[in-house]
Amino acid sequence: MVRARLDKSPRDVAAMFDQVAKRYDILNDLLSLGRTKAWRRSVVATIAPTTGMRILDCAAGTGSSTAPLVSAGADAIASDFSLGMLEAGQKRERELTFIAADNLALPFADGVFDVVTISFGLRNVANTSRALMEARRVTRVGGRLVVCEFSHPTNRLFRVIYLRYLMRVLPPLARAFSSNPEAYTYLAESIEEWPNQSALAERIAESGWSSVSWQNLTGGIVAIHQGINGGGASRLGGSDNTPGR
Ligand SMILES: C[S@@+](CC[C@H](N)C(=O)[O-])C[C@H]1O[C@@H](n2cnc3c(N)ncnc32)[C@H](O)[C@@H]1O
After folding, report:
1. Which of 133, 215, 220, 238 has a Cα at 20 to 30 A from 36?
2. pLDDT one-digit tens code per residue, 108-120
């Protein structure tokens, strides 16, 4: 069994998701105590997809985060670097376009998407800032970033209860139901060490996105962050993607 460590070695992350791919979506529903669907509805409401809107859903896994965007009429593509996840998705979501791609080097020209979105993927990427800058490169000026990711409950007592669930309840549940329970130990650890809402907003802004804001879901267990590609250079020295570049 492969499990990723907190250095998020791309080889380990991809291999780990290959191993959980078949039961990934069922386990998501189970371990989130049924909240996943509501979180996905909030992402769709935030994106507000319209007919023909060009959306890249990166780290899309089996395409569960992409399917509702396509159902709403958007021209959405699912990309991921785990071939196992893509294969599991392709079997189920036959109408979706799946592309094997690394978030750190996306195979798209500058400024081709209206929206780039990433659900429960950014936390697993080896270099967060680079992924955010690469997402901005492929987004048109005026286009948006929508990130849905586990975050930190804002109420202290709720946070203690939630961390107990993550560290003590989730691993045995995963041992009972997953083909790679170690992946869920990584899940718990990676959620705990992930930046909180304001720190992630700062990271997104440093990567060149403007007007960064966020919305908490389920008391902050999950947060949806948004930003706009205002067209300037990033504070981290990323490239300027004004039209025609
Ligand atoms: C927890 S899954 C999320 C899948 C889907 N977005 C969802 O909401 O169910 C995280 C995904 O991130 C992908 N991933 C991690 N790092 C990546 C990278 N550098 N490039 C592409 N995909 C990556 C993994 O392969 C995995 O499928």
Report:
1. 133
2. 999 999 999 999 9
For residue 104, which atom of ligand 1 is closest to its CA? 19
Residue tagged 């209206």 (tokens): 114
- Ligand 1 neighbour 103 (Cβ under 6 A): yes
State the CATH architecture for 10-228.
3-Layer(aba) Sandwich (3.40)
Domain coordinates in residue numbering, the chain: 10-228
| Atom number in ligand 1 closest to CA 187 | 1
Beta-strand (E) ranges in 59-130?
75-80, 97-100, 113-119
For the stretch 170-216, pLDDT in tens is 888 888 888 788 888 888 899 999 999 999 999 999 999 999 999 99
Q: How many A from CA of 15 to the centre of ligand 1?
A: 11
- For helices 24-31 and 36-47, what crossing angle results, to 10°? 100
Could you tell which of 56, 58, 81, 83 is best to mutate to test the pocket of ligand 1, judged by most ligand atoms within 8 Å of the CB?
81
Q: Is 67 helix (H, G, I), strand (E, B) or coil?
A: helix
Q: Measuring from atom 10 of ligand 1, which residue has the nearest CA? A: 121
Q: How many CA atoms lie within 13 A of 109 on its CB side?
A: 5
